Each structure stands twice: as structure tokens, then as C-alpha cells.
Amino acid sequence: MTTASSADHPTRRDFLFVATGAAAAVGGAAALWPFVSQMNPDASTIAAGAPIEVDLSPVAEGQDIKVFWRGKPIYISHRTKKQIDEARAVNVASLPDPQSDDARVKSGHEQWLVVIGICTHLGCIPIAHEGNYDGFFCPCHGSQYDSSGRIRQGPAPANLPVPPYQFVSDTKIQIG
Amino acid sequence: MSGPSDYQPSNPALQWIERRLPIFGLIHSSFVAYPTPRNLNYWWTFGAILSFMLGIQILTGVILAMHYTPHADLAFKSVELIVRDVNYGWLLRNMHAVGASMFFVAVYIHMFRGVYYGSYKEPREVLWILGVIIYLLMMATGFMGYVLPWGQMSFWGATVITNLFSAIPYAGESIVTLLWGGYSVGNPTLNRFFSLHYLLPFLIAGVVVLHVWALHVAGQNNPDGVEPKTEKDTVPFTPHATIKDMFGVACFMLLYAWFIFYMPNYLGDADNYIPANPGVTPPHIVPEWYYLPFYAILRSIPNKLAGVIAMFSAIIILCFLPWLDSAKTKSSKYRPLAKQFFWIFVVVCVLLGYLGAQPPEGIYVIAGRILTFCYFAYFLIVLPLLSRIETPRPVPNSIADAVLAKTGSKSTPMVSTAIVLALAGALFAGSIDSARASEGNDKPPGNKWSFAGPFGTFDRGALQRGLKVYKEVCANCHGLSYIAFRNLAEAGGPGYSVAQATAFASDYKIKDGPNDAGDMFERPGRPADYFPSPFPNEQAARAANGGAAPPDLSLIAKARSYGRGFPWFIVDFFTQYQEQGPDYVAAVLQGFEDKVPEGVAIPEGSYYNKYFPGHAIKMPKPLSDGQVTYDDGSPTTVAQYSKDVTTFLMWTAEPHMEARKRLGFQVFIFLIIFAGLMYFTKKKVWADSH
């Protein structure tokens, strides 16, 4: 093959080889997509992840319930006055993941804390009403969250995330 | 693999590895510098095609296993969920199911090529025997894979094939119980078949490595059957053989894609879209097409044990081929008599395949016995005899001589044999259909369906009207349990918006629970819910309908079919006729007649239907003119209702049909361009070598 001369002015043969190689590469890459895409959640899983409604009326002050949405445990806490005050009294700047309590609850419904109950360290489920901050304690590696679900102590890097939700009525929320 | 390689990579990092593990030298000597005879024809590309298919089967199989549930109660449904819900699940499933057939198409061509050109002869006996072992493993793998969808044919195929072992004297029954892991084919059987079906392909891959190793020790045979003597007889594997093989693979992919995108159920059996039922055997139980010749041999022997022995001998005898045929001349090209007998043998095999799909009665049994005799006679009488009496034509001195002599005279036999084989293959594949042709019922009339053909799409109006007919009429007795309300808003469906589908769902009461008090409760339907079934269980359905449970309609358009008969099943392959199911469903809906013809007895509680097998159907005439009101002004006639609801049921049977045909068109455009480019590239690469 005349590779030396083709460097200056490509021959028809070179064009053919490049075109064939390019077609093979494009076809191969396109064929790869279904094999990757199939790993994503299937249509029934996505449909099952639709928003859910939760009735809050049976949850008394100081109690909390755990519901599941998209396979994740969601803590819904009916906070006491004391818990709310504690959460608001903290100097936000001193927190590892600074965030005010206001930003983590819906205004007008400050007594309700809704968080995804998955420790931001390595995914264990923290225990409610334990630890030094009147919030959550993760038994796996000792992370402690306060009554606003914010990280206060331990290896976890971030606050417990707040899922998307809204109040449909005073006693009913829709998660998702 | 011809001695230590003197190949040295130029990259220092690769050199470092090469000194410690000479893997690049191995690859270079096996697949780059390896001398390949320059006179190989396209029949030799089937080795590469088979490697490609094995890779595809393993890749798609591993992926399907990620979504499949090997449990007797869940397997059938999990396969349907793969096809309906997993991203590109329909594509992956079609690739795997059709891939098995394509694998066998390629292996049969590969084997016949080996027989024709004497590729089993000294020094390639071990190479050949390894090939027979691969073939046996493939048969076992294919059989167990066919069991996994747990449809009617899966279940009864598993029952019949495992029962073959009961023919073994004394130990037979114990062996069968051992295979089943129970007193009959059941969940333990399915579980172990799944495990073994996952294992065996890797064993095949291992034996393929040995097969290629043996090939590279002995060197490739070639159409002239003379061993390469000088460098002039060979060309380097890369780029010559690599490019040629890739061109072969590209052409083969065209055939493969034809089935995947346009005829995915052509090679399968409609009965396998009915969930396994241990209480009812399908009227015509037929194995997959690639086992049919051996199935015919099994059935033509009237003794159980002898039949099983004959069937297995028909495969094992291939191992002894190198010694049964002791002729010194390898290629049938130079053996005038062997060449003729070879083609007779091919015809015998094809005809045995045809008979394997026919009901075992009358002329078919006699023909089966004659052909079984011919099959064994080829190995045990013809080949040994020919080795002694035949005078072969002189073979060329060298491959180079053969190539020079050939220039000018085009290889027309190759083209004609390709046509013969294509026809034979079509005959073979379609013979499953003709199994059902002999029932003597009126054939359902053909309809013009909007979804037929390579560019077919569903008529949205028909889908919406069909849904209405289903909801108001069929749903009183028939479930639609694989369809969720959300499907109504999906692309390629009835074209409703998400809001419309949500509103449609909320009209239904769905049983949910248990709630915190432990009670079940009813709530309005959501898009994620499935159509509720009219009866809580099969017994209730049976009791309410005179003993016959109304079948779930989700898959009915694919689970029903009728025999097309010769030569239609061959024509169907080219015209892409796939609408036996819809034609049948529409015909049954319109086939009720008050006047029962003479000679047909209809039992109490049944009704006469012109197109139903046996004519006595438990379902009363479901549709009458004006029964369902249409908002769009379409005629409210039984004919229109039938057409609409059948269109709807075709969609429920295959919600992604439009996506399949659309992607198929794109793939074909690409493959045709790519195969064309490969052809010219191959010509350029070989230009200096001819």
C-alpha cells in the first residue's frame, strides 16, 4: 500500500478505507446505546415512582412516621415547640452544611419536617429521636442530625435531603 | 500458533508486557500474520459469522438475565415485561430469540461446507470432532433457552425432550426425575435450566477456543483440498481474511435484521405466547426448526428406545465421519460421485426437517422411514463405498495453480447452491406452519391492516374505538392484565394524553392494601395500575362461563395463528406477512352463524363458529350491530367493531411495534450502505492477490 504518497494527497483507496472505518465506528457506537440504555429504570419502575399522598392527621405532636417513596424511607416528623426552637436557635454559619431551618420546611407548616431518611455518609437509615441533637442518629458510623435533619456531628458530609413535596391541605402532603 | 512468534511490539510498554506474557505475539501470529489459503470462498466466512453470533448471544443473554425471573409463576410475565417496559427490551429479546435461529442457520451451512470440502479429513479429525461437540452443546443450550419463557411450547417441549431419557432401560424413570427435580416439569426444572442455559454458552466459547487452536495447528482446508505449499498459496489473515469475514458478517446481519425488525415471530410458535399450562398439551407439538430433522428420525422408529438411540446416533455418527470416508481426495469438487451424493444428502436432511413438522400419520410416517434410512445410508454405506470405488478427478498441484485456472470461469455453482440453500431454509423454517394447515377449517379471510408491512403504523382512530369496544363488551369476561393505563398515553399507542389516560384510569376501582388496619380497600385507578381482570381467579372465570375460562386478551393477537401452508409460508417471508393472529381474531369475531352446517355437532352450551378450531366455541356471539356507539361517525357494524378491537388487541400484544419497524428501516439503510462499503473495501484489499 502506498502510505508514503497518500500523506500528501489522499487517494481514492484511502477515502474508501476511511469511509468504511467511519461507518463501522458509527454503527458500532449506535448499536451500543440499547445495551447501555436497558440498564436504566424500566417504564413500570418509573410509573411506580409517581407522587404519593400522605395523610398527616394521625401523627401527634412529638411523633413521626416513615413512608416509602421510590423505595426510599421518608421521615415525616411532627416537631414539638422545643424541637423547632432548637433548630432555629443554631448559628447557621457554624454548621458543617449551613442551611437555615426555614429553608428546610414549608412556611406556615413549621411543625412538619419531611426528610429522606438516608444517611448522607453511606446510605444507612438513621434512628429518629436519638443522638445529642434531638434529631436523628445513624447507628452505622455515628453521624448525628439535629431536629431539622442537619448534620451536626460524625462523618456524614451533608444534611438529610428534603424530598420534593407540597401541602395539598393542612393535613395532607403530596410527596414527589 | 505456528511456533514461537518473532513479533515485537514497538511500544516500550507493550514490549514490557510481551516479555512477561507474549500475548501480542500470540494475537499477531494467530489473527494477523497467520497464512490463510488464498482460494477460500465465501462459505469460509461462516466461521467468523458463528463467532459473531456467539458473541451476540452471550451479550444479549447476559442482559436478558438481568431482567428475567426464573420462577414458574413469574417467568412468562417477566419476559413480557422485558418486551414492554425495559428500554429497548423488545430489541434485545428479538435479537436473542432470532439470534438462536441465525446461529443454527450459520452452523448448518458451516457443517455442510465441511462435509462438501472434506474438512474433517486428516489432519483435521480433532478439529472436526470439537466442532461436533460445539454443535451438541448448542443444541442443549438452545433447547434450555426455549424453555425459559415458560409458554406452552416451552413447557411441553421440556416435557417431551426430558422424557426421551425415560427410554433408557431400568434407570430411565430415575434419570428423568433427577432432571426434573420433581414428579413433573415444574419450577425446579425451570430454575436448573436457567442456570445451565447461562453456563453452557461459556463452555461453548471454551470449546471454540480449542476449535480455533486445532484449526491453526492444522491450517485451514480450502475449496481445492490441497495443502498450501509455498507462500504463493497463502495471503496474510489480516487484512485479507479479516475484511472478507467482516463483509460476510455484514451480509449475514441483513438477514438477521430482517427477522429482528420485520419477522420476529416467523421462526417461533404462536402457542408460546400462551402461558404454560400443565393440564393441556397443544394439539401440534413441534420443536424449534433446527431440531426438526432429528425429531423426524425419532418419530419414524416405532420403538421408543430404538427411536431415541436412532436420534442420538444421527448426531454422534458425525464424529466418525473422518474414518467412514477414507477417500484421499478431500474436496468434492474433484469427486464427481461424492458431489452428487452430497446434494442428495442435503435434500434428505431438508425433507426430514419438513417431515419433522408434519403430523405423524399416513404417508409422512413412511416417507420418514425411507429418509431416515437414506440419512444413515449416506454415512454407513455411501461414503465408505465411494472411498473404495470412486475415481476422483486430478487435483491441482497447488492452490496458486487452482486460482490461476479459475480466473475467467466464474463460480456459478456457488450462486446456484446459495439459491438452493435459501429455498431449503425457507421451506424448513416455514414447515412449522404447515403442521397446522391440515385441520380442515375455513381459513380466516385476509384483511388490510394499517399495521401490516415494513412501514405499518396503528390507525389511532381504530385503537381508540377498539379500546371502547374492549371496555364495553370484551372486558365483561376477558382480562387485559399486561396493559397498564399509562400505556394508553405512550408513543405508538392510541394517542391519548397523560391527562386523558389518568382520567381513564380514575374511572376504575382498583383493589389495594392492606392498609394500616390490615384491610384491603378500593381506590380509584392510577396510570401505573393495570387493567383489572373481570374475575378474581381462573376458577371463578371458569365457573361463570360454562367451564371454559375466557383467555386474557393482552397477547391474543400473537398467541393465535393458523396454518399458511405451502407455498405461502415462503412467500410470507418476502412479503413480511405477519398478520395470521389478527386475521384469525377478526374472523372468529365475525364467524358466528345461527345455521349449523350438516355433520357438525355443537354440544349444549356451545356455539357454532366457522373459524374456531373444531367449530364449537363456548363464547356466545359477542358483537351485534349498533351495540357500541362511536363518536367519530365510523359505522357501528360488527365488521367495523371486529376490525377496531382486533387492531387494539394487536397493539396490546405488541405496544412497541411502530418503534420496531421504524428502527428496522434505519438499521436497513445503514446495513446496506455498510455492506456496500465493505464490499468495495474487500475488493480493494484483494486487488493485488487475484
Structure, briefly:
Chain A is an alpha+beta fold and 176 residues long.
Quick tags:
heterodimer, A: 176 residues, alpha+beta, Rieske Iron-sulfur Protein, 2 domains, four-stranded antiparallel β-sheet, three-stranded antiparallel β-sheet, B: 690 residues, mainly alpha, Cytochrome Bc1 Complex, Chain C, Cytochrome Bc1 Complex, Chain D, domain 2, two-stranded antiparallel ribbon, 25 helices, globular
Structure characterization notes:
The complex is a heterodimer of chains A (176) and B (690). Chain A has helices at residues 3-6, 12-37, 43-48, 81-89, and strands at residues 52-55, 64-69, 72-78, 112-116, 127-130, 135-137, 144-145, 151-153, 165-169, 172-175. By secondary structure, chain A is α+β, with helices and mostly antiparallel strands. A 4-stranded antiparallel beta sheet of chain A has the order 5-6-7-8, with no helix packed on it. Chain A has a 3-stranded antiparallel beta sheet with strand order 1-10-9, with no helix packed on it. A 3-stranded antiparallel beta sheet of chain A has the order 2-3-4, with no helix packed on it. The radius of gyration of chain A is 27 Å and the shape is elongated. Residues 1-7 of chain A have low confidence and may be disordered. Chain B has helices spanning 12-20, 23-31, 46-67, 75-84, 89-116, 125-147, 152-163, 172-180, 187-218, 237-262, 292-300, 304-316, 321-324, 336-356, 363-389, 399-406, 412-434, 460-472, 498-506, 538-544, 556-559, 568-575, 580-590, 638-653, 657-686; strands at 35-37, 234-236, 509-512, 521-524, 607-608, 616-617. Chain B has 2 domains: 34-432 and 664-689, Cytochrome Bc1 Complex, Chain C; 443-483 and 530-655, Cytochrome c-like domain (Cytochrome Bc1 Complex, Chain D, domain 2). In chain B, helix 14 packs parallel to helix 17. In chain B, the strands form 3 sheets. In chain B, strands 1-2 form a two-stranded antiparallel sheet. In chain B, strand 3 and strand 4 (521-524) form a beta hairpin. Helix content of chain B is 56%, strand content 3%. Classes of the chains: A alpha+beta (176), B mainly alpha (690).
